[in-house]
Amino acid sequence: SIIIIHGPPGVGKTFLAASLDQKYPKTIPSQKMVKLNSLLWLSIDNGATDGFSESGLEVDAIDLRLAITEKGPLNGISFCLSALEKISSKYQYIVVDTVSMLDKILGEYWDTHCPTSSSGKRDTGAMWQSIASSHRRFHARLSSLNNIVYLCHSKTISEYAQKDDGKADTKKRAEHSDTLASIIPDVTGKSAQLYTGESSLEAALIIRRIGKERTRVLLPYGGNGFEGKSRFVIDDEVKNPNLGNIIEGFKKKAKRTV
After folding, report:
1. Phi, psi for residue 69 in degrees, rounded to 5
2. I need a labelling partner for 251 at 20 to 30 A (CA). Which of 13, 120, 202, 243 fits?
3. 138/184 Cα distance (integer angstroms)
4. CA distance 12 to 231
5. b/e map 122-135, b = 16+ CB within 10 Å
6. pLDDT at 135
7. Rounded to two decimals, what is the model's pTM?
């Protein structure tokens, strides 16, 4: 299965993914160090798992940023995927943290390596195609392995409704004029659809002020402007969500309907 969780930076996506492991503590920070053996992290954001150690959590991780620094973007990505393919069977979930940072890295790479047109100008169309092709190869290799959790940053429909040259796409904005608060993954162009198109669960994580408390809330399909699709549907907003409990609930519900 493929799970996609997106939300603003710092909202708690990484810890939400960590809650997939059955050993995830009921309270954070944990009083003792807990190894989440069922999860393997593919760290792309700078310091993706830095908050774990001070919270009493430990996970196995592959540092994609380090590989890119040493080998370059395309070779570094291929190197890490090859490493994942060798050890993925040991884990229940592979967590990609985050696809949005991968997208930024690919964008910067192809911005300087894209072909030029016959006039000698940068071929922006070829650049966007190259970014999409890199995402496609990345996703294809990962999706052939175990269950995948893609973490992404979010953007609004109003940010999405832009042409590749950065100008406003009035047609897209008109189509979504009544849902400009909608939340979608922050990935270039149509590349996000590569990840969302095969997802079993897509949800947006936000922080909402409830009284004097700031509470993490997982938005359900079709609620509060969130338009993600999913084969697993969250019936209502989930406050302080535990992803492992949510998935277990889906499994129990499926057994009752068989």
Report:
1. -60, -40
2. 13
3. 20
4. 23
5. eeeeebbebbbebb
6. 95
7. 0.84
